[in-house]
Design a protein that fits this description.
Blueprint (H helix, E strand, L loop, with lengths): L12 E5 L1 H6 E11 L3 H8 L3 E2 L4 E5 L2 E5 L2 E2 L17 E4 L2 H13 L3 E10 L2 E11 L2 H22 L1
Antiparallel strand pairs: 1-8, 2-7, 2-9, 3-6, 4-5, 5-7, 8-9
């Protein structure tokens, strides 16, 4: 008898990251949101053609939207649609999460930015965060801490 092997397709993985947000902001709290996408956008995400730099979250009429993210259309996209790379995309969050985010942004002076886009099973998810801006001296201190941790790891390894 022959043994049947089942190969699972790995759909997990990061599509895009916003490294600039981690550098420019203190991350206070993270949330996971779904994305409302069109068919051509999902195909482009599977090809890894998304950019999150210079994107942010806006709130309008009790709903959250991703503004400024770019999804490049594939060359093989359908001809009967006009793909718009920088369109505003609706975020899928619970009402309680949206109210919490809106309250923090309006009253406490936080900003809301996307950190990463990734696959969770067959669904595309967006990791968003409440953030506070860093001053220049804060960025220098963070870089100094990171360098010290790296040097300490090298010393301990020897």
């Amino acid at each position: 008898m022959s043994k049947v092997t089942v190969v699972k397709k790995n759909n997990g993985g990061t599509i895009a990251q916003n490294k600039r947000a981690r550098h420019d902001y203190f991350i206070e709290e993270k949330f996971e949101a779904g994305l409302s996408l069109q068919g051509w956008e999902v195909k482009s995400l599977r090809a890894g053609r998304m950019t999150l730099s210079e994107s942010y979250i806006t709130f309008k009429n009790g709903e959250a939207y991703l503004f400024g993210a770019q999804i490049q259309p594939l060359l093989s996209a359908s001809t009967h649609i006009v793909p718009e790379a920088r369109r505003t995309r609706k975020l899928l969050l619970s009402k309680r999460e949206i109210e919490k985010l809106m309250g923090s942004v309006d009253q406490k002076g936080y900003s809301c930015v996307p950190l990463a886009c990734y696959w969770k099973g067959r669904l595309a998810k967006l990791e968003i965060a409440l953030v506070k801006g860093k001053q220049l001296h804060d960025k220098r201190a963070t870089e100094k801490d990171r360098d010290w941790q790296r040097d300490k790891a090298r010393i301990m390894h020897k």
